Amino acid sequence: MFCGGVSFAATDTWKLPELCNNINNLDADMRCLCSDEVGIVEDDTDGHFTIDKRINIDADEWMSAVPYKHALKMYVRDEKGRFNTHCTANMVRGKIVTAAHCLIKKGSGNEGVYYFQAGDGTELMARVKDRGNWTETAFRSTGDWAILELVNETGRDTVRNFGTNKVLAVESDMYREPIIGAGFGALKVMSDEEIERFKKAFAVFLQVKGASGSLYSGGVATSSEAGRMFLDDLLFNNMCRKWLADPQQRHYYDKECVNANGQYKYTGLNYKACGMGYYNIFLDVEQLKMSKCTLGVYGSGGRDGVEAMGCQGWSGNSGGGFYLQRDYSLIGVAHKGNKHNVVGGDRHTIGDGAGLSLTAASNFIDRLPLGNTDGRTGGDDGADNNGGGNSGGGNVDGGADNDVSPDDGVGQRAVGQRCVADDLPEHATAGVYRAKVDGGLNCGDRRCDCTATACESGYRVQLGQCVSSGGGKITLF
After folding, report:
1. N or C, where is the chain less crowded by C-beta within 10 Å?
2. Are 109 and 103 in contact (CB under 8 A)?
3. What confidence tens digit (pLDDT) does each residue in 142-188 have?
């Protein structure tokens, strides 16, 4: 077998591409690509964030701060019964609102039922009550909306108490008003340092492959031919290293990583040594993120076309709500991005457009009830309904100023309260109890689990657990 044109030794140790024979020709920051080490560079949580301006919303804010508490994860269920986030939705006037194109995702509907999760951990099931006329060939976004009704009684209090009654039709005089978008976009919030390493790794990849490609407005267009090849290389080099080192998974290596002539199909670069894991970067779907931008309006009263100018997002933001900053009224849901998904540069996450395209609430506002069905206010005052001190919707900038104090709930199990130390997942330093049908704990009369919200150094939150983000320095050869 071969790796980068060099055959493996009898011990099947990993061989690096020829470029690594003289690592002094590489940028000093990228010599980790030629490392034999397994460890990875730690996340740049202390880095600079001037390119990717989105902000992670923590568990407390998602559960209790306006407008984030209105947001829902939208799941699909795979062939093994596992739930995976693929879109965003919103609790509005006792209903659930999302983008119509989120309904056609394979595996999303089981006998017409769709699945969601609220910030307090409540699992919601709903069926479509009304929807727009959007199709995959639709030119305009006006029909890309769907309204769903709950089918599980246990979720009704959550939708009433954490939903919003404030929905506003966009008018042309709202042009350039400040707005906030929130969604579960799959691209992690990347520091300037991470983006720079990503771009440099792309250049090294092109050099090793002898492939043509260039930056798009200073960033990597991941949807271009060269970008897609790079992402495949990023994914499979990391996976192939893992499979080769594990006798129990070696058959995956033989099937996926070598061609019919026994030649390794990828570059052999050690991306993970440089802190680049495909899943960490492009499948951060469990993290709610916010972006600030301004409203762009064109067409008749904003009905035909609405844009979130300058808003950053990724696949997974679809269906996410956009709210006026002045009073947190819902004015639309995310429809789609633009032609190119770009990492880095002045088009980071924006591509070739001015921002994200929206489906204006003007298109579905008359299909919603006037308020929650039981007359509760639910959150239509734009303020926190949970007795916290974040007047006017909490800390919009995503800081640590939350509605639940560090000591609230410690010593008891209740959905939404902080976990006691004995219940924390491995390597977690903080967590929140979230309702779960098959949870291993009891929170009063509900089953629940403790979901990690903070981790020890060298670990990061992923799917409610603390997974390794590496640690330590890289030793070259």
Report:
1. C
2. yes
3. 899 999 999 988 888 999 899 999 999 888 788 889 999 999 999 99
pLDDT in tens, 286-308: 999 999 999 987 655 445 567 88
| Cα separation, 202 vs 234, whole angstroms | 9
Given phi > 0 = left and psi -120 to 50 = alpha, else beta, which region is 190?
Answer: beta
What's the CA gap between 223 and 236, in Å, rounded? 17
Nearest Cα to Cα of residue 256 among 272, 270, 269, 244:
244
Q: pLDDT tier at 398 (50, 70, 90 boundaries)?
A: very low
- Whole-prediction pTM value? 0.77
pLDDT in tens, 416-432: 778 898 899 888 888 88
User: Which backbone phi and psi does 249 adopt, to 5 degrees?
Assistant: -115, 5
* Closest residue by Cα to residue 334 from 316, 314, 358: 358
